[in-house]
């Protein structure tokens, strides 16, 4: 494949013919601030924060969706470029984005970090008056605060392009763009799967996971693991506060590529600290009908004796093995091996089809 050669900030760069200016710069270790852009999700270039100067071009171009072309000479940090970025961010702040500068859950938002990087603390324009819009929080997992929304539409791209749900859409309210978030009281009647990928994409916290309000970044640690819910093997980080799992965040694994479903994000860990969770085997007393705790050795001996008795009396066909989709391939292999050799049955199935 023939490479495309260009110059970025005086540095010779070679990239794929499919690269944009932004991706070519990223591969070369050159940072270009961005806001509405999210790789494989959104490149509508509405924020104008990623503008750069191309030699010979009369106007600044957006790096996120402008193809890198042979012989381009690009400047990413000229006074003209920096002034344009500050103007773009000032306009966003004036159009209702000022609330998004505030820290969320003890951490600066991505939007606030970009503003700080570009030297913008407040808008140089008169802030447009806005009608108060209520927070939409009928969904038990997600909420939407319109006062924090900057209409970057990353959430729409995450829902439509990445998750493939096509539930979130951009709308209009007069001359303003809005996000129609289906998180109200009738959320069950919508096609929303509550996967949370929209909140993950949001740079301001306008869309957020409700459990995120229960901790601050300084209070938690993260542990990489595999989601236990099905056989896909999505990678995730368990967020731990005071020895208790309080959240789950997607990691960029080979099967999930930084995404999670509602089960992985909101249903894969609460049972760990549940008061209803069994931590020891229970055996029923035939005389009283009451359960009592026992050791694993005793419990396994009882199960093995009972299974053996059924097999010897009625034959292996009277037994069956059914594997859980939460089990690893190795565990399931051992189960079927035990069923065929110890139970002497071919009645084997699993629920990994969910």
TrEMBL record:
CDD domains, A to Z: fer2
Pfam families: Fer2_4 (PF13510), Fer4_Nqo3 (PF22117), Molybdop_Fe4S4 (PF04879), Molybdopterin (PF00384)
Record-annotated 4Fe-4S Mo/W bis-MGD-type domain positions: 220-275
Stated name of the protein: 4Fe-4S dicluster domain-containing protein
Domain 4Fe-4S ferredoxin-type: 140-169, 183-212
Classification via SMART domains: Molybdop_Fe4S4
UniProt keywords, alphabetically: 4Fe-4S, Iron, Iron-sulfur, Metal-binding, Oxidoreductase, Repeat
GO biological process, one term: respiratory electron transport chain
Keyword Repeat included in the entry's annotation: yes
Lineage, opening ranks: Bacteria, Bacillati, Actinomycetota, Coriobacteriia, Eggerthellales
MF (Gene Ontology): 4 iron, 4 sulfur cluster binding; metal ion binding; NADH dehydrogenase activity
Domain 2Fe-2S ferredoxin-type: 1-80
Cellular component, GO, one term: membrane
């Amino acid at each position: 494949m023939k490479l495309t050669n260009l110059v970025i900030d005086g540095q010779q760069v070679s990239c794929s013919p499919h690269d944009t200016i932004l991706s070519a710069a990223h591969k070369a270790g050159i940072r270009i601030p961005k806001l509405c852009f999210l790789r494989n999700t959104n490149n509508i270039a509405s924020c104008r924060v990623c503008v750069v100067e191309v030699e010979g071009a009369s106007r600044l171009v957006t790096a996120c969706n402008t193809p890198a072309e042979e012989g381009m000479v690009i400047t990413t940090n000229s006074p003209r470029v920096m002034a344009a970025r500050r103007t773009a961010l000032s306009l966003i702040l004036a159009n209702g984005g000022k609330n998004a500068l505030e820290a969320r859950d003890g951490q600066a938002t991505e939007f606030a970090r970009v503003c700080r990087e570009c030297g913008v603390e407040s808008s140089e324009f008169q802030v447009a008056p806005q009608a108060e819009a209520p927070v939409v929080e009928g969904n038990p997992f997600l909420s939407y605060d319109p006062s924090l929304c900057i209409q970057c539409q990353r959430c729409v791209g995450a829902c439509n392009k990445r998750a493939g749900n096509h539930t979130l859409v951009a709308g209009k309210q007069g001359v303003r763009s809005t996000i129609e978030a289906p998180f109200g009281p009738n959320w069950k009647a919508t096609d929303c799967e509550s996967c949370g990928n929209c909140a993950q994409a949001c740079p301001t916290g306008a869309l957020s996971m409700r459990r995120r309000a229960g901790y601050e970044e300084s209070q938690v640690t993260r542990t990489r693991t595999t989601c236990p819910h099905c056989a896909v093997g999505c990678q995730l980080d368990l967020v731990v506060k005071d020895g208790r799992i309080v959240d789950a965040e997607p990691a960029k694994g080979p099967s999930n590529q930084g995404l999670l479903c509602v089960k992985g994000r909101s249903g894969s860990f609460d049972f760990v600290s549940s008061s209803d969770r069994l931590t020891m085997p229970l055996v029923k007393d035939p005389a009283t009908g009451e359960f009592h705790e026992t050791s694993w050795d005793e419990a396994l001996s009882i199960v093995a004796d009972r299974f053996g008795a059924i097999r010897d009396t009625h034959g292996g066909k009277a037994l069956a093995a059914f594997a859980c989709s939460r089990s690893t391939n190795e565990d399931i292999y051992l189960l079927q091996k035990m069923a065929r050799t110890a139970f002497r049955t071919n009645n084997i199935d699993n629920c990994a089809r969910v």
